[in-house]
Specification:
Elements lengths: L3 E6 L2 E6 L18 E8 L6 H20 L7 E8 L4 H14 L5 E2 L4 H14 L3 E3 L14 E3 L4 H15 L4 E7 L3 H16 L3 E8 L7 H10 L3 E3 L4 H13 L6 E3 L7 H6 L7 E4 L8 H13 L7 H19 L5 H9 L4 E3 L2 E3 L11 E6 L5 E7 L6
Parallel strand pairs: 3-4, 3-5, 5-6, 6-7, 8-9, 8-10, 10-11, 11-12
Antiparallel strand pairs: 1-2, 1-4, 12-15, 13-14, 15-16
Bound molecules: phenylalanine.
Length: about 400
């Protein structure tokens, strides 16, 4: 199996191919700087969810470079050690052990997928190394302990937004659900959606499931067609969503699909094409947000990564690394309990994904954007919803 590892030393980026080493390994040829502050990253740089890891990595890289350009932390540069977990929970656990044990990192950034973060979190807690997931929204992730943080909103909020949007904007009375049984993110999102949608007067007419990696969804979609819902909730990842949309269109089903942040990848419409137009999904970040700091980030990202635009994951990775940088400044580069305390005192941090306060539960409370997929795969912000809209 081919593993890739990413190593950033000071301002330079070394992408080292580690074919002869087990996945997640660090190239022994890389020299680790003595006088740097090491920070770890765990992500799916390869495998079916590779765009998750790569987008996040690029956002983190940009933030680390900016922090280093501004003088680093207490006179030292940040050194990012990134390990590939191929989207596998067991690989992510090994990566945390390696980063905390062998590399003595001050903190760990990652993972994207909730199922993977849920496996990592107790290990980071055990090592007392602060972990910040940029984008795992499953509520249980930060419940692993007081060293585990996130800079994104939680599933309780996203599912409420999806339910409100289905009821008030799509004017749906009947919903069908198609969930991924292998994903904690998907299962819990579906559960919370059901609660809010039914409390709001809607009815779940049918629940169907699949397992990530599946490619044929026709039997579930045929059953859904017979149940005649007004909307189909698909809280999954982009990898399957595109295929689901295509097969739905082949079956002549016009019902809109509604999803969450797991749809947010440039690959979504590459796979789903026109079949996705008229669908909606909730996410964290919009490129056309007018705020000057968002526009500055978008420009810097494009300049850095050959014109590529940041997606939600890149923006969340950037915010997570910047928040870690601020906390490390407060501790003058120290890790452990001190760093944990500094992270826990994050208030009103002006992130590109919104203002971030890490409350006592170590979760961020933020707004969400709902995108409509238009013809040609363009995205339009159909609504912004803040936690206040539900009070
Ligand atoms: N929120 C997803 C999870 O918790 C991960 C994700 C975030 C995927 C954003 C894509 C974009 O598993």
């Amino acid at each position: 199996m081919r593993g890739l590892c990413f190593r950033v030393l000071v301002l330079c980026v070394f992408v080292v191919s580690c074919q002869s080493h087990p996945p997640g390994a660090v190239s022994p040829s890389s020299v680790i700087g003595q006088d740097t502050i090491r920070v770890g990253e765990v992500g799916s740089m390869t495998g079916s969810g590779a765009t998750f890891g790569i987008s996040t990595h690029q956002g983190i890289l940009l933030a680390v470079e900016e922090l280093n350009q501004k003088g680093g932390i207490a006179g030292k540069k940040l050194e990012l050690i990134s390990l590939d977990d191929q989207g596998q929970p067991n690989e992510a656990v090994l990566a945390v052990q390696k980063l905390a044990g062998q590399h003595s990192v001050r903190a760990i950034l990652g993972e994207v997928a909730s199922t993977v973060s849920l496996a990592m979190a107790p290990v980071a807690q055990q090592f007392q190394v602060p972990m910040i997931t940029p984008s795992s929204i499953n509520s249980k992730v930060t419940e692993a302990g007081d060293f585990v943080f996130r800079v994104c909103f939680v599933d309780r909020f996203q599912s409420k937004v999806m339910a409100q949007f289905a009821l008030n904007h799509i004017r749906a009375k009947a919903a069908a659900i198609l969930e991924d049984v292998k994903s904690d993110y998907s299962r819990d999102s579906a559960k919370i959606f059901t609660k809010h949608f039914t409390e709001g007067g809607g009815k779940i007419v049918l629940s169907q499931s699949y397992a990530s990696g599946d490619i044929d969804f026709r039997s579930q979609l045929t059953a859904i067609r017979a149940a005649a819902p007004d909307v189909i909730l698909v809280p999954g990842y982009y990898t399957e969503i595109g295929l689901i949309a295509r097969q739905k269109a082949e079956l002549g089903l016009k019902t809109p699909l509604l999803g969450g942040d797991g749809w947010d990848s440039p690959k979504l419409t590459e796979i789903g094409g026109e079949a996705l137009s008229g669908s909606f999904f909730v996410s964290h970040f919009s490129l056309d947000h007018p705020s000057p700091s968002v526009q500055r980030f978008v420009d810097a990202y494009r300049a850095h990564f050959r014109g590529a635009s940041p997606d939600g994951l890149a923006a969340l990775g950037y915010d997570a690394a910047k928040i870690l940088g601020e906390a490390l400044k407060k501790t003058a580069g120290e890790g452990g309990r001190e760093l944990r305390k500094a992270l826990a005192s994050t208030r009103d941090f002006p992130g590109v994904t919104g203002r971030i306060t890490l409350g006592p539960d170590r979760n961020a409370v933020k707004s969400a954007v709902v995108f409509e997929v238009l013809h040609g795969g363009k995205l339009k912000s159909a609504a912004w919803m803040s936690p206040d809209s539900f009070r």
